[in-house]
Amino acid sequence: DEWGNLLNEENPHQLQQLIRLPGQQYDEESGLYYNRHRYYDPLQGRYITQDPIGLKGGWNLYGYQLNPISDIDPLGLSMWEDAKSGACTNGLCGTLSAMIGPDKFDSIDSTAYDALNKINSQSICEDKEFAGLICKDNSGRYFSTAPNRGERKGSYPFNSPCPNGTEKVSAYHTHGADSHGEYWDEIFSGKDEKIVKSKDNNIKSFYLGTPSGNFKAIDNHGKEITNRKGLPNVCRVHGNM
């Protein structure tokens, strides 16, 4: 299941398979999963010892990731950026990203929502903008590039380019935390509109995740094409904070 429990096994050739969740190896003696720096108990969905790096790995010293379907902890220390989104690029995490590949969708809208749904909470926590691109592959499906961290009130989606052989079609970004009137948090800024309208950038639309959880989009003429609620609107503490 999603927490690493082996529900059933078909093994007619009696091959030994000890690999479990990313970075984990089954220990037959204890029934636990060895996770480099500590042991994980799949029945409890938690580690049996405290995190050796303390609170740097998250507020729960025994906890695995809050969402084991998308987040990974290959070293038993802290959450790594979602390997399926391609957000991690170095070492083992980069290898996993290349093997698994990004989540893909049938529409630009769904792709942008997925990307913003994953990053809006962190953007609020850090009070920094995050941004990335929406790309189209050869089969006509869409995926997002990893969000890159911008400034408090500024980001540039093209710092996370589409891979070779894919087409850049749209972009997404967040607006950080509520500025309490200092900035126009809930609408596209003049700079945002320049980005989407620029012929050099060549994108069809630009998506926004706001501090209040609104999911918005404008086309390359500046016309609003999407406006609905549903994104995270609070700072959620998680493993990589």
The geometry reads as globular
Which second-level CATH architecture of the largest domain applies?
3-Layer(aba) Sandwich
End-to-end distance: 26 Å
Give the ordered list of helices and strands: EEEEHHEEEEHEEE
Full CATH superfamily name of the largest domain: Cytidine Deaminase, domain 2
Helical content class: 10-25%
Give the helix tally.
3
Would you kindly provide a written description of the structure presented here, covering whatever features stand out?
This is DUF4329 domain-containing protein. InterPro entries: DUF4329, Rhs_assc_core, T6SS_VgrG/RHS. Residues 110-228 form the DUF4329 domain. This protein has 241 residues and is an alpha+beta fold. The chain is built from 3 helices and 11 strands. The protein folds into 2 domains: 1-79, no CATH class; 108-228, 3-Layer(aba) Sandwich (Cytidine Deaminase, domain 2). The strands form 2 sheets. Strands 5, 6, 7, 8, 9, 10 and 11 form a 7-stranded mixed β-sheet that branches.
Summarize the structure.
This protein has 241 residues and is of the alpha+beta class. It has helices spanning 91-100, 108-126, 190-197; strands at residues 25-26, 33-34, 39-41, 46-47, 130-136, 142-144, 148-149, 167-174, 205-209, 215-219, 224-228.
